[in-house]
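Data availability (excerpt). All sequences and predicted token strings are deposited with the supplementary files. A representative entry, HTH merR-type domain-containing protein, is shown inline so that the format can be inspected without opening the archive.
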Amino acid sequence: MEGMYEDGTGLLSIGALSRLTGVSVKTIRNWSDQDLLPPAARTPAGYRLYGPDAPARLEIVRSLRELGIGTAAIRAVLHRERSLTDTAERWADALDAQICTLRLQRSVLRTVAARGTAAEELPQMTRLARLSAEERRRIVADVVEDALDGVAAPAYRTGLLTATPDLPDDPTPEQLDAWVELAALVRDPELGAALRRLAEFSARTAPAQAAGAADALDPAAATGAAVRVAELMRTRAEAAVAAGIAPDSPVAEPVLAELVAAWIPTQAATPDPPAEDGPAARTRLLEQLETAAEPLVERYWQLLCTATGRPTPPSWGTAGTWTAAALRAHRTPGEPDRSAFERLADTDPERVLAAYTRVVRDIGALVAAVRPDDLRRPTPCAGWTVRQLLDHMVWESLMAASIAEGAPRDDHTADHLGDDHVAAFEGSARTALAVFTGSGMLHRTFGPYEAPGGLLVQQVTVELLAHGWDLARAIGAPTDLAPEAAAETLEAARLIYGAAPRTEGSSFAPERAAPPGATGADRLAAYLGRSPD
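Structure token line:
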């Protein structure tokens, strides 16, 4: 064999071994010095010679090195001090740890890139990301224990402590971002105070049952029932909002009655449980909703679920606000005041339609005067810009038309304005007018209380004129809108909303006094709680 030592012993020189295996002379010499590939002999001049088994042994060393196994471990395998199986298992475990570290580093870097983290925030984010699972649990547990200290609410406490922030080995940027925000949130004293309020409420209302009682309530069954009722409340209330049902309107009562009826059985094991729908039951349900309305606690659960990969609970903000407002407005179950229905029966349908047409005419001209820059302006409707106000006005007409056609819309949160607010308003008004005149709506009834169709048209007219006044105030335009229809529109508002309580979360604030010389639209706005000044 070429490169064999010339004495005929069959030994390989270091150069021959290098050419045979493709491993450099320098590397072979280094491995020989580390006792991984000892020479079989040396020449008289002291050069290393390797035996016939050297190529195979060298391949073993090279393979183990490529797998990342250290020199000492390779030497132990070659000297039969440790089995290859045991060595492989140990190094695989070590690699797992390294992989976890690398994944975490990658997640931190991706999160930094995604959220635009400032350099000053990086050390804190990195520290939080490197915490062990036990350290993360301890951060949350300390807050819970401190907040609930002295409160006898074991079930509530257990629920909080059981839900721990266990990040996966390879968290996504969203999960790591959620954990960083959660770690900051639990340091907020307001969160601790909110958790304590909920625990105290839980302690006051927890079922009191004798140990071993035969009729003891199954906790799992009770929790399941409560979850189902909460989901029913959320979906029904959100559907009511989407359908444009004001919480203080008569149409809200049957929705509320269904929710209270479903909720009552879940209170069977609580102290002094309500037996039927009535003021006591509605007051208790309202208290529960008001107590549960803790935005920081809701955010805590959202972040915890996001960080751990659990399904994020749906937000209760919209549903909770609507249901609470409905409970305040309808303290006692009962039929709505039907006097408005009876009085409307004496109103000429054509007069109702004419008032709508006049209001749409003047509001349409006002909408056409809105410039693109005006769309960002604030309005007297708290929290609404001009664009949001216009979108709502368009939706009001579209919603009324869909009710008349027997297919109420459920896209309250969609964008109904698009890029052309004038075309959107005019199109919705044309659609509504066509349905009002062509479907026989003015001579039909709608809903569980058989409300006259004309009443629905009047309600839309009131909404459009009131919001038209909001728009005029927002863009600095005159408020003398539809003067020939404003007075009768105010009378329609008194007829429709006169019995509605002006409570927190309701459609309208308490009535205000209209100033001397107020226009008809000004007086309508004042009646509905707007400040005419």
